[in-house]
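FAQ
Q: What does a multi-component entry look like?
A: The components come first, one per line:
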Amino acid sequence: MAVFLTAWRSFSSVVRSERVQFRKKAAGLGICILATISVACSPASSPDTTAAATVAATSAPTPQTTVPPTTVPPAEATTTTTVNGAASGVIVGSGGLLGWWDGAWERATDPAGVPLEAGSTFQIVGPTGVVGTAVGAAAAPGCEIIEEHVDVDLEPSPYDQFDPFGSKPIGIVADWDLVPYPVSELPLDSPSYTQIVADHLASRGFDDPQPEIVQLYRVDLEGDGSDEVVIVADNHGGEFFQQGVYSLVLVRRVVDEEVQTAVLHESIVPNDLGPDEFPFSVVARVAALADLDDDGAMELAVDSAYYEGAGTEVWDYVDDDLGFVSVLLTGCGA
Ligand SMILES: [Ca+2]
Ligand SMILES: [Ca+2]
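Then the predicted structure of the entire assembly, as tokens:
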């Protein structure tokens, strides 16, 4: 398990209100977030088979080469239309410009290759629906320390205030129904889902009979008549560097008449770290539940953040065998 950083201060003591400021600060430290966020999130496509991403940090970074897949098995919808001069589906999150769908998921790696014109209108969509629109500038190089990072400024920007413990929506150039199925927010103190989280933590050797759920949604992601439930839990309380903390993004869904749990994000720091171990953790929030490729099924966008690093990842439910697959990922950080 990769861990990195020899940070010494809690995040709250050095609050960064501007993403640009955040990036400049991060620029001096030099480890690719594509690696770090992948470590925290990506091996999660198969229900209940995800390797525990428990993080009990040591001091030295471990270089990772894992990157998310940029293509997935072809889906039925392969048409690319033009909206406001841009290829449909150009997606931006708090971590930067992610990519778009063009018969396959295309990750943005070069501003010149992004089919986006300045002045395009983005729909801003969060976990429960479209919340507004914004006008995008041209795609441009983003994070100073990530070679292929691309970003686009939005006006108004949903990302002016950097808050790793809050949910930030995504933007997408789209003329279709981004939320074809309604998303319901469930009470965060729901006993049944609290128990599900407690059981999951217990399966990882972490004891918390009353875990804290911070986001909880019910939605039929692909409209098959069976609801999925998206559970986001963490107990950080706005502090990164603690022992005994967890951050989870779980999706409950029925497969072959059996309820399964897919783990899209898991970061657990046990209570009993050794004297040479560092309590490094990665927190996650669901940024959006939306159909990002116009195939009638909704994807999940998940933000992840750690001390001086943050990213956004898109998960697509491919089929019952592959489950959720990470299809787009970008971010910036040390
Ligand atoms: Ca469903
Ligand atoms: Ca879709």
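Q: Is there any commentary attached?
A: Sometimes. For this entry: The pocket of calcium ion (ligand 2) is lined by residues 291-293, 295, 297-299 (CB under 6 Å).
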